[in-house]
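Good morning,

Attaching, inline, the backbone tokens for the sequence recovery test we're adding to the shared suite. The designed sequence is right after.
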């Protein structure tokens, strides 16, 4: 018994429709995948940009913290280095008074008192030097505003101009810091004194 050929065109048409539908589905899927890929690439780019921003921000924060840490360590070092400064400033006037009292004892009957004062002064000097405190050299030295404070100027035959001829009040250095400037009298030199006298005489003649 032979099969009928009347249904073959319909079957071919059906197959063609199915192939067309399948192709459309594939095209649609590829289009969807392409869009999703583009969205994914954009998302990756956004995440990379945010990641770079976060890295930059993290690096800045790390640098700021390092600077803060270094500044804090420096401040701590300075604090420890000069921790005894308030105490020394209180002690120095007593030390100066003791030295002045010692210099005013001249009588032979007070020799033992002088020795006692000298021993105390020497011990006091050792204590201060152990703390890093040293007296500023003044008399005979050239005037230096970083260490000396000039109270006045005087003519001097012994010293040239700008040399300290007398110390009124001693100054002190604590390690590398000036605690107290020496108060001094500075030589103005005989040449200036002579010039002043000449000018005075000439003005008187006029």
């Amino acid at each position: 018994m032979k099969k009928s050929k009347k249904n073959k065109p319909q079957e071919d048409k059906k197959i063609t429709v199915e192939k067309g539908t399948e192709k459309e589905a594939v095209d649609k899927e590829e289009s969807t995948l392409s869009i999703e890929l583009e969205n994914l690439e954009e998302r990756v780019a956004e995440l990379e940009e945010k990641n770079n921003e976060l890295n930059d921000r993290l690096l800045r924060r790390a640098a700021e913290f390092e600077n803060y840490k270094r500044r804090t360590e420096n401040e701590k070092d300075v604090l420890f280095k000069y921790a005894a400064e308030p105490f020394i400033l209180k002690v120095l006037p007593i030390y100066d008074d003791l030295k002045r009292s010692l210099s005013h004892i001249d009588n032979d009957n007070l020799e033992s008192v002088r020795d006692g004062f000298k021993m105390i002064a020497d011990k006091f000097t050792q204590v201060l030097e152990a703390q890093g405190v040293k007296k500023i050299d003044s008399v005979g030295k050239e005037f230096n505003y970083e260490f000396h404070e000039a109270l006045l100027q005087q003519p001097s035959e012994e010293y040239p101009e700008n040399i300290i001829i007398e110390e009124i009040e001693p100054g002190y250095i604590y390690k590398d810091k000036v605690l107290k400037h020496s108060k001094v009298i500075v030589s103005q030199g005989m040449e200036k004194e002579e010039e002043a006298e000449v000018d005075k005489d000439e003005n008187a003649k006029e």
